Amino acid sequence: MTDITTRPGFPTGTIIGYPRIGRRRELKKAVESFWAGTTTAEELEATAADLRATTRDRLANLGLGRTDASIPESFSFYDQVLDAAVTVGAIPSRFAPLADEAGSVDLAGYFTIARGEGDNAPLEMTKWFDSNYHYLVPEIGPETRFRLASDRIVREFEEAKAAGYITRPVIVGPVTFLLLSKASDEAPDGFRPLTRLGDLIPVYQELLSRLAAAGAPWVQLDEPALVSESIDEDRSTVLDAVAATYAALGEVDGRPGIFVAAPYGSLDDALPVLAASPVEALSFDLVRGSVPTGLDAATASGLATKTIVGGVIDGHNIWRGDLEAAFGKLTELLALSPVVAVSTSTSLLHVPHDVDDEPALADQLKSWLAFADQKVAQVATLARGLDDGHDAIQEELSAASAALADRAAAPGVRDAAVRARTEALVPADFSRGEYADRLAAQDAALGLPFLPTTTIGSFPQTGDIRRARAQLAKGVITEAEYLGLMQAEIKRVVDLQEEIGLDVIVHGEPERNDMVQYFAENLDGFAVTQNGWVQSYGSRCTRPSILWGDVSRPAPITVDWSTYTQTLTEKPVKGMLTGPVTILAWSFVRDDQPLGDTARQVALALRDEIADLEAAGIRVVQVDEPALRELLPLKQADHADYLDWSVGSFRLATAGVRDETQIHTHLCYSEFGVVIDAIRNLDADVTSIEAARSRMEVVHDIQTSGFEHGIGPGVYDIHSPRVPSVAEVTELLETALSAIPGRQLWVNPDCGLKTRGYDETVASLRNILEATRAVRSKAGVPA
Ligand code: GLN
Ligand code: ZN
Predict the structure, then answer these.
(1) Any residues with Cβ below 6 Å from ligand 1, and which?
(2) What residues contact residue 36 under an 8 Å CB cut-off, 6+ apart?
(3) Atom from ligand 1 closest to the CA of residue 754
(4) pTM (2 decimals)?
């Protein structure tokens, strides 16, 4: 066991975590082939072990120490919160048969909990703080039997040790684990998982003992929930839990040093509690938060005994950034404690692996970027600066400053025409006419029936569609051939909608690989990567675009697709765009100006697109904002500013149209209540939202909020292959009608259909139409 008195100090440079999916998405491929049954669990374990070994070697080569616990052991097969759940034996009872007497599950069982099986729904998935990563929500009740059910963490430490490394095991901390959990199905109403803390702590204590026995000098406990104000728990209860947890963990005999990482924001009132605790090292996210000042004497003297780990390298974003300023922040930390280390602000999970893996990006742009590997090197540089002084890293600091200056002055980063336009904006640019006038004009122009039916935009993306896109990219087919294939697809989709009887027609979005990347590829100011994959959840990765410069629209983007579609039908065709907030949320955004400024530029490009659609005869335009709720900041104090610019940018994009042009928006969730004022302020004529899974619960929020515009609560859960029956849809519509005036109600699925197959889609849409006709005639309206 490590003796506390001789425990080596915390490393001067470290990272909170590293991407685990692999440079070529090796883990994704290995996991998916295991799911498909083409490889065995042993083969998957072997691939994962290789990946971990490669990661350690790479991190050491980039400058992290091999044997000083600076390399975090942050691998996961699927998700780190699920890992914590299976480590402490928190298996929901529907999955209990997967576990042995010791409460442990094998790899297959682990994935079953993540993905569900038959009637057993998987753990719910939700957003990880203000990132685009999604974690699995543990289910905890009075029946949960906590015990150390998996020693995977210990084994991974031993695996590293056998390869000559002393690494730092990482696990989600007990307080965050319980705060991110929800009550199990068995739990009584109002049950709070945090009340089980006393039973959970001994498991973590045992884990610390096991790690100590294996020779781990340090362990990292991730406690990001402490920085969030979106946690539904009384704050003083949370702070008491922190104090109790770390007092108890501190008592473990011969334990490793405890490093509490608190990424995604500032610790605020949790800081005094941690300062008073026995933890030896504490990280501050100095990208989202700042160096704390005005500390009381007790907090100051507590902190002075700890290693303060300055998270100065942005783990969220891909910019090389201002290294000199980062070093300056570390210097400021020296006022708090004589022992300061450097780290990333968050895990590097949120950024791609390596800029050098992007041969197609312009060299100049690349010189401004830092992906995970470049950030590790930056950490190593700053650590050297802390050890050897500023002069020792002068060259690297100057090179980063030169890149920053080059970026600031580069053509395209500031475009005079774009700037002149945003500066000339006046309040009227953000407002449409009175809703009552619009409604009358739209009724006259569109002639839609009672309970108009539509879809959210995409139709199933078939293998043929994906193949055509890939062939175009490879030059196997010409632009003209591609256009022909897509037009044929659009015609099929339009004919199908006509035959089924939908009222507002979509073109199906076959030409779009992704609802954000498609626009990024067609706007100036964006670059797209080849290998810049980032884990979104499980084996799913996205490739965010890089928004590096002022945004403008060199040419119309969707107009030809929409006008072609309108030639195929008399019914109104709905033009389909992605909104400014969502484009920002799902891209890497520039860090050299407020997000609101960037959003306005994107909004103006979309406004031009909408004007062109309108001029070309498109009478309905939908601007999707599924990320509006997702980008809401973690701190309450930041909400007003966020809602101001986000809602403002949507309005700027959509307010240029005539009264008779109908603007729709779509939001991908049902927590309508949380952002109801924002949704109202979007001032869209029609809003579609998710509602099928929650059995229309949302209509009560809509009713009490007095929302008066058109609203389409989804009647078909597109996350499942299930076909809703006519009776089911009828009941949902009747529930909706019991709360919302009929003239406001639209009928649509929960979201786009692109991930669904054709058979289930067609069957579901037919049932939706049949139910709608039944409800219409019951209301005395001709079907
Ligand atoms: N229009 C998009 C689609 O139907 C909307 C997707 C989304 O909301 N995520 O696919
Ligand atoms: Zn959606």
Answers:
(1) 456-458, 509, 515, 576, 624, 626, 666, 668, 751-752, 754
(2) none
(3) 10
(4) 0.93
Q: How far apart are CA 542 and CA 705, in angstroms?
A: 35
Residue with the two structure tokens 């083969």: 43
Task: Concatenate the DSSP letters of all residues of 614-660 into one string.
Answer: HHTT--EEEEE-TTTTTT--SSGGGHHHHHHHHHHHHHHHHTTS-TT
Neighbours of 361 (CB within 10 A): 18
pLDDT digits 0-9 by tens, 489-539 = 999 999 999 999 999 999 999 999 999 999 999 999 999 999 999 999 999
CA–CA separation, 225 vs 262, rounded Å? Answer: 8
Residue nearest to atom 6 of ligand 1 (CA): 752
For all residues of the chain together, what is the average pLDDT? 96
Residue closest by Cα to atom 5 of ligand 1 = 752
Give the Cα-Cα-Cα angle 154, 280, 210 (nearest 5 degrees): 20
Q: Say if residues 13 and 70 touch (Cβ distance below 8 Å).
A: yes
CA dist., res. 551 & res. 554, Å (int):
10
**Chain segment 452-497, per-residue pLDDT in tens:** 999 999 999 999 999 999 999 999 999 999 999 999 999 999 999 9
- The residue contributing the CA closest to ligand 1 atom 3 is 752
Q: Whose CA is closest to 726, among 739, 715, 738?
A: 715
CA of 667 to the centre of ligand 2 (A): 6
Instruction: Give me the phi and psi of 344, to 5 degrees please.
Output: -80, 160
Q: Within 13 A of 448's CA, how many CA atoms are on the CB side?
A: 27
